[in-house]
Design brief:
The protein has 378 residues and is mainly α. Among the domains are: 176 residues, Serine Threonine Protein Phosphatase 5, Tetratricopeptide repeat (Alpha Horseshoe); 51 residues, no CATH class. It has 17 helices and two strands. Strands 1-2 form a two-stranded antiparallel ribbon. The longest helix has 32 residues. The N and C termini lie far apart (82 Å). The relative contact order is 0.05.
Length: 378
């Protein structure tokens, strides 16, 4: 058998099962073999395309030959810059042989070149399913268990580089996607197709970021909880989910859970020797800010103050975070009618360029015009 790419089927064991990964090869001297040889020698694009179309029609009863011909057409069009025609040919190849890994890799490449993130992830997940089918194929009766196990491992090894490539391509597509809803959908598809991926935590963070951009707290609850279940010791992921929950002022359950997760972040960060002192401070400061804000939004200003006071110096190097924590601290003081302390914090907050700078100015005006009153009991 003459092979055009590294074979993923072992010829000695006979025909491959329908659900198994397909590679292209024809028996030496067969009509398909001879025709493919002639096509390979043709360098003119139009003549080559004509030969390939003839090849597909001539061997239309042979799915592998059809898939091979359309795969070659796809690559020819891609080289010529016609990505739409390339993808159409690739889809026809895939229709003939859905588990042809070479075709799936080509379609991922074409989609990447076309900057079609959704298509990149779609074809990558199909490739993941094709790779997964290797382990699911039935053992032929004539093959011993040991030989079958060796065959499966060999096929997986042959397909591994393609699997790794499409996985990385899908991750890059998720990173590149700017539309929040589309990114979340792609992240969900990725997680289902690559459950044990080294990219899982990072993909989850991008999805959560997108859910927060669209204020989809219900989606955050569903996706975020599963992500934490899959990555329970990932402090960055825990912090992101807790920050999201702390913004959901309509849900006391989310505000309480925000504090729970943020407290876990402080414990993990304290024990993480891989963090530099600056990174550790920033992580713990961000977590304490979340705790403070979640308490503040539950009308627990007195309990929020110590957390926000601890967080402030830790976040000074990040203007956005520092602006947020100073405003929250000043607001808590003002809420308890501790006006001198509120003024002292706001005197700094108004000079910090960040999301709460203007709100700090407005609060300072209100505090300056307010009359002292008996301290509010908490």
């Amino acid at each position: 058998m003459k092979l055009f790419r590294t074979a993923l089927c072992v010829a000695a064991f006979g025909a491959c099962a329908a659900a198994q990964v397909v590679s292209f090869g024809f028996p030496a001297g067969s009509p398909e073999d001879q025709a493919s040889d002639s096509i390979a020698k043709e360098n003119d694009l139009q003549k080559k395309l004509a030969l390939l179309n003839d090849f597909v029609q001539k061997f239309s009863s042979n799915p592998v030959a059809v898939a091979y011909g359309q795969w070659q057409i796809a690559q020819a069009y891609q080289a010529a810059g016609d990505l739409k025609a390339a993808r159409a040919a690739g889809d026809r190849a895939l229709a003939a042989e859905p588990n042809a890994m070479d075709v799936l890799v080509a379609l991922v490449n074409i989609s990447q070149q076309a900057k079609d993130n959704a298509a990149t992830v779609m074809y990558a997940t199909k490739a993941a399913a094709a790779y997964g089918s290797i382990a699911l194929q039935p053992k032929p009766e004539a093959v011993s268990a040991a030989d079958f196990e060796s065959m499966v491992k060999g096929q997986q090894a042959s397909a591994q580089s393609a699997y790794d490539f499409v996985q990385g391509a899908a991750f890059n597509a998720i990173v590149a996607e700017q539309a929040p809803e589309a990114r979340v959908k792609m992240a969900q598809e990725f997680s289902a197709a690559f459950p044990a991926s080294s990219y899982s935590a990072a993909v989850a963070q991008y999805a959560i970021m997108s859910l927060l951009q669209s204020s989809d707290f219900a989606g955050l609850s569903t996706y975020g909880e599963q992500a934490i279940k899959d990555n329970p010791q990932n402090s960055a992921l825990l912090l992101m989910v807790s920050q999201g929950y702390s913004q959901d002022q309509k849900s006391s359950a989310h505000l309480e859970r925000a504090a729970v997760y943020a407290k876990k972040v402080t414990v993990l960060a304290q024990a993480d020797s891989s963090l530099s002192p600056e990174q550790k401070n920033a992580t713990i400061g961000a977590a304490k800010s979340v705790i403070g804000w979640s308490l503040l939004r539950q009308d627990k200003a007195a309990a929020a103050i110590p957390e926000l006071k601890d967080a402030a110096p830790m976040l000074k190097s990040s203007p956005d975070d520092y602006s947020s924590v100073l405003y929250g601290l000043a607001f808590a003081y003002a809420r308890l009618n501790r006006l001198p302390e509120a003024k002292a914090v706001l005197a700094e907050a108004v000079n910090v360029t960040g999301p709460y700078q203007e709100l700090s100015r407005e609060l300072l005006q209100k505090v300056n015009s307010a009359k002292p009153a008996p301290a509010r009991k908490q």
